[in-house]
Design goal:
The chain has four helices and five strands, in the order E-H-E-H-E-H-H-E-E.
Length: 136
């Protein structure tokens, strides 16, 4: 079994708000991240796939195919977007880094045909990252 990781970057805006909370509770729990005008982050995404090396090609997966899948399923949907307002999965889900990792997993997992999706890692800042292994 060989593990292969592809890394990319994107930028997005969001805010944290739970409609079940009062305005005071939203402010207490989410602080400045509750600003409805939002704020932005630069994210780093690492996607790890695993599989056996094909003896004919020498690949676990063609890197161009993986790059194209990341572009079509993740970057085109999330890069320079206001997550709460432009990404359907975040209309009813708070766009935390944790939920972002889950959404990316859910977008990529059905598209993996040759290799198996192993891990999605999202870095929000250099000192915060979240791993998703597809378990709920």
């Amino acid at each position: 079994m060989v593990y292969l990781t592809r890394k990319c970057e994107f930028s997005a805006a969001h805010y944290y708000h739970n409609p079940e909370f009062s305005p005071e509770e939203n402010q207490r729990i989410f602080g400045k991240c509750n600003n409805p005008n939002g704020h932005g982050h630069n994210y780093t995404l690492e996607v790890t796939v695993k599989g056996a090396v094909n003896p004919r090609s020498g690949f676990v997966v063609d890197l161009k195919d993986l790059k194209d899948t990341l572009e079509s399923e993740v970057l085109s949907a999330l890069d320079h977007r206001f997550l709460n307002k432009e990404v359907p999965e975040f209309r009813d889900r708070i766009p935390t880094t944790e939920n972002l990792a889950i959404v990316i997993w859910e977008r990529l997992q059905p598209k993996m045909k040759v290799a198996q999706l192993h891990r999605v890692r999202v870095y929000e800042t250099p000192d915060l990252f979240v791993d998703c292994y597809g378990e709920k």
